[in-house]
Amino acid sequence: MVTEKLYYQDQYLGRFTAHIRKSEKDEKGRFYVVLDQTAFYPTGGGQPHDTGTLNEVEVMDVEEIDGEIRHYISESMEVGSECIGIIHWERRMDHMQQHAGQHILSAAFEEEYGYKTVSFHLGKELCSIDIAVDNLTEEVAYEVEKVANIIIIENRPIETRWVNREELSNYKLRKEVSVSENIRLVIIPDFDYNGCGGTHPKATGQVGSIEILHWEKQKSHVRVYFVCGRRVRTQLHQKHKVIQNLSVLLSSPQEEVVGATKRILEDFKEAEKTIASLKQQLIEYEAESLTVKAKEIEKYQLIKEVFENRPITELQQLAKNITTKSDMMIVLLVNESDEKLQLVCGRGKNVSVSMNQLIKQVLPCINGKGGGSDVVAQGGGQKLMSPDELINRLVDSL
Fold it and tell me: How many CB atoms lie within 10 A of CB 224?
């Protein structure tokens, strides 16, 4: 069922009248209608679908499937009835700005440096293109952005033209078209010639501006993130707000925020080193005080201790520090948190008991997991008993 595509006749048409030719549910149980004509653009060519209403019924999605344009709606509508369609205009204009901006940016990359665009994504907040290059420098990105914005300022026309295969040779296309008939070209004269089925404004000036935000390596390509038009103002507002807040927090003017942040980070790293050193000293003092409490069991010295909410890494270090003070030392440490029990077991070098085997004997009691070596082992599990009971299980297992 062929629907007349009004969005190709007038991309600025935001309100239209149509008749419903088909009203059904798809295989997912979603209501949809097919109209005799529509201004709703369906998802395709990297551009998302339009939204809006049909007789005040919400249009949530638009797709072209097997040649028919389906308008997915929130409730059923009657076949043969007339409806008034209203396009969510801010969304349409935003998509036109981003899509045309992508054409301009891709053409600028190729025109200035020969970098071809291999893919395009129009997201809700950001857009991106993947360019066929291993690396992108600040200088290149700045120059391309400058050229793209000059094309916008010049307010060049953006034309569309329907051609056949034979006529394609008359145009300097940047890439091969993907269809063999009903070929639609989007043209910025003397700058960009592209096969495209999307909607675009009539002139480059309506794109407003282009801002490259950042880029990242993607396998053999570089992904460039950018915004156009209204989104540039949104990004500017968001970033200005962040900078203003940082300026207040750092008590620094905007131009000194980076330097102030670097100084704070350097101070923080030094503080972290100091804290780590002090923690190490505290653990050493703690190891010495616990060593005094060691009990003689046969030929071994035994230390058993229960803690609350201690990091397992601290207990591991504590156990190692204690076992260095006596070759005949056995250390059994249990940590209790709100949700689980953890244990660390260590031994001196002349102790024959395997710590790995020891914890494996008691871990099933708490549905736990863990492991380690004969010298030191650790694990954890559910809080199915008290920490004192668990530590006594360890002693009994010795």
Answer: 26
d(CA 72, CA 194): 30
Dihedral pair phi/psi, residue 151, rounded to 5°: -60, -40
The whole-angstrom separation of Cα 345 and Cα 342 is 10
Q: Pseudo-torsion of CA 374, 379, 383, 384, nearest 10°?
A: -40
Start-to-end Cα distance in the chain = 81
Contact of 104 with 192, CB cutoff 8 Å:
yes
Cβ-based neighbours of 2, under 8 Å, separated by 6 or more? 67, 68
* Interval 53-72: pLDDT, tens: 999 999 999 999 988 999 99
For residue 104, what are its two tokens? 């301009």
Q: Is the separation of the CB atoms in 322 and 331 below 8 Å?
A: yes
Q: Pairing relation of β-strands 369-372 and 221-228?
A: unpaired
CA–CA distance, 145 with 297 (Å, rounded to integer): 77
CA distance 121 to 48: 10
By three-state DSSP, how is residue 103 classified?
helix
pTM equals: 0.76
* 192 within 8 A of 86, measured Cβ to Cβ: no
Among 2, 90, 78, 95, smallest CA distance to 41 is for 95
The pLDDT tens digits for 266-307 are: 999 999 999 989 998 999 998 888 888 888 877 889 999 999
Residues 332 and 319 sit within 8 Å (Cβ to Cβ): no
Short-list 143, 182, 145, 186, CA closest to 165: 182
> CA-to-CA distance for 392 and 362, rounded, in angstroms?
10
Q: pLDDT for 329-365, tens place per residue?
A: 999 999 998 889 999 999 998 998 899 999 999 999 9
